[in-house]
Amino acid sequence: MTLRDRVEKCLLGDIVEITECQGDLFVEVERNRIVACLEKLKETEGLEFDFLSDVVGVDNSALYEKAKKAKKKKKKDEEEEEAEPVKEEPTPPRFEVIYLLLSLKSNERLAVKIRVPEEDPVVDTVTTIWRAADWPEREVYDMFGIKFRGHHNLKRLLMWDGFGSYPLRKDYPLEGKGEERHFDYCD
Amino acid sequence: MGLQAYTGPGWLLTKAEQLINWGRSRSPWPLPYGTACCGIEMMAALAASYDMARFGAERPSFSPRQADVLIEAGTITKKMVPVLRRIYDQMAEPKWVIAMGACACTGGVFRTYSTQQGISEVIPVDIYIPGCPPRPEGLLYGLLRLMDKIQKDHPLWKHRQEVVEALGAES
Fold first, then answer.
1. What's the pLDDT band for B6 if we cut at 50, 70, 90?
2. CA A68/CA A75 separation, integer angstroms
3. Considering the domain boundaries, does residue B19 fall inside one?
4. Is B90's Cβ below 8 Å from some Cβ in A?
5. Would B101 be classed as within a structural domain?
6. Count helices and strands in chain B by DSSP H and E runs
7. Predicted local confidence at residue A163, as pLDDT
8. What is the pLDDT of residues B95-108, one digit of tens each?
9. Shortest CB distance from B113 goes to which of A160, A174, A186?
């Protein structure tokens, strides 16, 4: 049985999308089912993804913006030939959180993906399953502002306390918004 | 006689200054503050084949209290700025700063939200050494230039000005 079949069998109805890219398997699941899914992937015989390599965040807003513009342009070109009513498609949620798993028994890798909307950027923590998720989740919080519900110490990891922005969001300027770290014992 | 040295023609003062400058310029004990790849070049300059001790930088002083020259070798992030400032403040006078490498001078290629664009915005810098990273020869050249600078200093004349002003205010 291939890895894809085993993962499909394990997660059954929770899978939103399953894709294979460059030999790596990507599974997208519902946001509120992430803890249950990862627990299943860890415990199920034959899969046993017992090692969490990393947790990463993605901001797709620029990508969606670009796709939207290209589509509009295409529609405009088409309209010159034949009139067609413009249909607005809802854009997918802005953020993604990707969990990179590794099975130390079978040396197989799996990426589990969830989508997180901008209005409600809250995800359940997986530090209850892997303690290793502690710092990666703090980094995702620091860089994207995605909060992890239940995390025992959700503070900024890289930037200093009181930084106030989320620098890996696509609408954040590269050179910053003039944040400086203040120190009070001298001028 | 001491007072005469301050108010008189200053022959003794000049000779004393030359002696002080000679001593200071030939023992610039460095405080290595390596934060990036420049730190590796600095270590090479301190180690046997380049041997910075030849010029009096005899021992790298890892305590700011016993150091004369702060060699800032590497990128300074904004998070690191208070630490650098505190280290500089802890050094006893007289003190000098060498900014080694493009990052310490201007921020280098890291023109981003997290990087300090040159340490001169935070602490006064005496010598800038460009390069990414500069070779150990570059650091040695910078150190020699700093020694020239120290020899042109007037440690007592600065003080004399203060004394003259104080005497003038009294009389």
1. low
2. 10
3. no
4. no
5. yes
6. 7, 4
7. 86
8. 999 999 999 999 88
9. A174
B82 at A interface, C-beta within 8 A: yes
CA angle A102, A104, A109 (to 5 degrees): 25
Both tokens of B79, joined, read 């998070």
Per-residue model confidence (pLDDT) at position A88: 65
When pLDDT is cut at 50, 70 and 90, the band that residue B57 belongs to is confident
Taking an 8 Å cut-off on Cβ atoms, the answer to whether A177 and B82 are in contact is: no
Query: For residue B77, what are the domain limits?
Result: 27-165
User: How far A36 CA lies from chain B's nearest CA (Å)?
Assistant: 37
Q: Strand A15-21 relative to strand A24-29: parallel, antiparallel, unpaired?
A: antiparallel
Q: Which residues from A are below 8 Å from B113, CB to CB?
A: 165, 167, 172-177, 179
Which of A139, A157, A159, A171 to mutate: most B Cβ within 10 Å?
A: A159
| More confident site: B141 or A77 | B141
Q: How confident is the model at residue A187 (pLDDT cuts 50, 70, 90)?
A: very low
| B16 in a structural domain | no
Residue of B nearest to A180 (CA): B78
| Per-chain mean pLDDT for chain A | 87
For B166, the enclosing helix (H) or strand (E) is helix B155-170
How far, in Å, CA of A22 to CA of B32, rounded?
Answer: 46
Chain A contact for B40 (CB, 8 A cutoff): no
Q: Is residue B15 situated within a structural domain?
A: no
